């Protein structure tokens, strides 16, 4: 399957990288690698930060879900993801998503793109 063109521009990725380093890297790792034990419940009963670099499940979620989780935090107490809607604008959240999606291999991005298109139907 040929990968579709990426939706973002390099400017989004550049801005997103700085924002990711400031707001996200402490938990998700500086390259978006996530916690080694991200699939296992922690002692607090919540999941550790997942990878965002294409090796986890972030690509299973359409854009609105990715943005919503950044803005509003982990759904239903599933993780310790805090809300960032009070710290980042919607445009900055878009840039962060561009940064981590830029790390995805073309095959992963193509699969995400199909999920994204189905979510709009």
Which SSEs are present, and which pair or pack?
Elements: H1 10-23, H2 25-28, H3 63-72, H4 90-101, H5 106-119
State the CATH topology. Cytochrome Bc1 Complex, Chain D, domain 2
Mean pLDDT: 96
Task: Figure out the total of helices.
Answer: 5
**Structural class of the secondary structure composition?**
mainly alpha
Q: What is the end-to-end distance? A: 21 Å
When the domains are counted, the total is 1
Question: Can I get a quick summary?
Answer:
Helices cover 45% and strands 0% of the residues.
Features:
single chain; 121 residues; mainly alpha; Cytochrome Bc1 Complex, Chain D, domain 2; 5 helices; 0% strand
Characterise this structure.
- The chain has 5 helices and no strands.
- 26% of the residues are buried.
- With 121 residues, it is mainly alpha-helical.
- The chain has one domain: Orthogonal Bundle (Cytochrome Bc1 Complex, Chain D, domain 2).
- The protein is globular.
- Helix content is 45%, strand content 0%.
